[in-house]
Specification:
The chain has five helices and five strands, in the order βαβαβαβαβα. By secondary structure, the chain is an alpha/beta fold. A five-stranded parallel sheet has the order 2-1-3-4-5, sandwiched between helices. The longest helix is centred in the first third of the chain and has 13 residues.
Length: 119
């Protein structure tokens, strides 16, 4: 069973994505901030991370860098409510495989994750 780590400071988004991916048969782990995300990633060794770009404390770029340092082949998809192309480009440079702008189509995110994890 593939594991997906969902990292977002908004509880509603975590809950929505948790439900969608649990129903699809994935094991899901959620985190509400960077420190929690790094801890849970170390414990769960996820196959995929859905990572919010802007969070209080540690931002998504810093979390992405730390995750990729520990697990180079980890697939990370960024989520952002901000269309800031410089941050999106930086996340791709740092190893993110894709990004979604909020509000996103949950079915599009689901299909992208499933496609990436089938490789």
């Amino acid at each position: 069973m593939k594991t997906i780590l969902i990292v977002d400071d908004q509880p509603g988004i975590r809950l929505l994505l948790d439900e969608v991916f649990s129903l699809e048969g994935f094991h899901t782990v959620t985190a509400g901030n960077g420190r929690e995300a790094l801890q849970k990633a170390g414990e769960a060794r996820p196959d995929m991370v859905l990572l919010d770009m802007k969070m209080p404390g540690m931002d998504g770029i810093e979390i992405l860098k730390r995750l990729k340092k520990e697990q180079q082949d980890l697939r990370v998809m960024m989520m952002t409510a901000y269309g800031e192309m410089d941050l999106i480009e930086e996340s791709i440079t740092c190893g993110a495989v894709r990004y979604f702008t909020k509000p996103f189509d949950v079915f599009e995110v689901r299909d992208a994750v499933k496609s990436l994890l089938e490789d």
